[in-house]
Amino acid sequence: MIKLQVEDLDVFYGPFQAIKNASLDVPQNRVTALIGPSGCGKSTFIRALNRMHDLQPDVKVDGRVILDGEDIYAPGVDPVAIRHRIGMVFQRPNPFPKSIFENVVYGLRIHGENRRSTLMEIAERSLRHAALWDEVKDRLEKSALVLSGGQQQRLCIARCLAVDPDVLLMDEPASALDPIATSKIEDLISELQKDYTVVIVTHSMQQAARISDFTAFFLMGELIEHAPTRTIFTNPRDKRTEDYITGRYG
Predict the structure, then answer these.
(1) pLDDT tens, residue by residue, 34-86
(2) Distance (Å, rounded) from C-alpha 138 to C-alpha 132?
(3) What CATH number does the domain located at 2-245 have?
C-alpha cells in the first residue's frame, strides 16, 4: 500500500529551482532512503513532504504530495496538522532546554493535554518506542541537555512519536553521531517501520543498503531513479546511478 504519493514536485528558492518535476511513491510501513551527492536536493525534497518550506518566505513549492488520498498542499489544509501527521527528525539533535519528560510531551501540551497520567503514559510509550526508556526512566525530570548526542537524537524521535504521526521523516539523523550511536539509530529505524512509514535522507550508501527497503537517487535536483534498494545497488537502470554507486563521482 502507498502511504505518500509525490506528483510532479518542483521546489524553488527564489529563482533557483532546487527540485525538478520529481514523482515518488512511498510505501506504507517501509523505509525509503534518499541518496545522492551533497547539494543534489535530498533535504529540500524531504522538507517538502511535510510543508517545512512554508516556514521560509522565499521558497515556492508546486506539485502534489498526497497523504492517504489527501493533498497536503490543497487549499484549507492546516500545515501544523500535517507536521503532526508527518513528523521530522533533523540532522543534529535539537532537544529543548527542558526536562526529558517535558521534551517528550511538548507537542501534547501545545494541543491542550495536561493530565499528568495521560502525559506519563504517552511519554513512557514513546520513550520505549525510541529505545530510550531504560536509559532515562529514573531521571525524567533532569535536563535533556545532559544526554549524549545519540540519546538526544532518540529523545527527538520520541518527541515525534508522542503525537502519534503516520510518517517519520529523518534528515541524516545519524550524521552527527559516533558509530555506536549510529548503530542504535539504525536498529531503531528497523523497529519503527513496523508501526510507521519512514523516509530517511542519508549521505551513507552503506546505511541506505543496510536499513532501507526502497532507495531513490537524486542528482542536481532531479529524481533519477527509484527502486527496491537491492535493485538500485546491484542492477540500476540509469548509468548515472551506477556511476554514483560505484564511486565515480559524488
Answers:
(1) 999 999 999 999 999 999 999 899 999 999 999 999 999 999 999 999 999 99
(2) 11
(3) 3.40.50.300
